[in-house]
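Before drawing any conclusions, I looked closely at one protein's amino acid sequence and its C-alpha cells, quoted below without any editing.
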Amino acid sequence: MSIPPRPRSSRRQFITRLFQAGGLIFTLLAGSTLFRFLGYRVTPPPRQVLVTRRLLPGMYHQEADFILFVGNDEAWAVSRRCTHLGCTVAFRELERIIECPCHQSRFSPRGQRLAGPAVRDLPALPVETLRDAGSNEISGYQVTIT
C-alpha cells in the first residue's frame, strides 16, 4: 500500500494564503497598537467642593469624595478612596480612625496608613479656609478634589 501524493497547491491558492497571512499580521499589529489606548483615561479637571458650615476644632465633615477634619489651627482633608482596591473608607469617630470596610485597612485622621493590606497613605487634598470679609470669622471650607 502506498501513500497517495499530495495535490500541489495552485498559484492562486498560494497568493490567497499569502494575503491571508499578511492580513493576519496587519490585524495583529494594528490591534496591539489600539489595545494600548483601551486603558487610557482622561483625568478630569480639579473641582472645588464648598463646605459652608463652620466646624469647631476636633470636628469632621464627611462627603462622598473626602473627609474634612478641623484642628486647632488648620483644616485638612483626605480622600475617601482606599489605596488598596479603591473601596470607600469611613471615619470611625469612637476610635478616631479611618477604616476601609472591604479589607479593614486602617488610617489615621491625617491619612497615614496604620494597618491592613493598603501600602500607601490616603491622598491629602488641598483645603482653603474661607472667612467673612468683615468679621474675619471662619465661614466654611473649600476642598479641591484632584
Notes: Residues 10-41 form one domain.
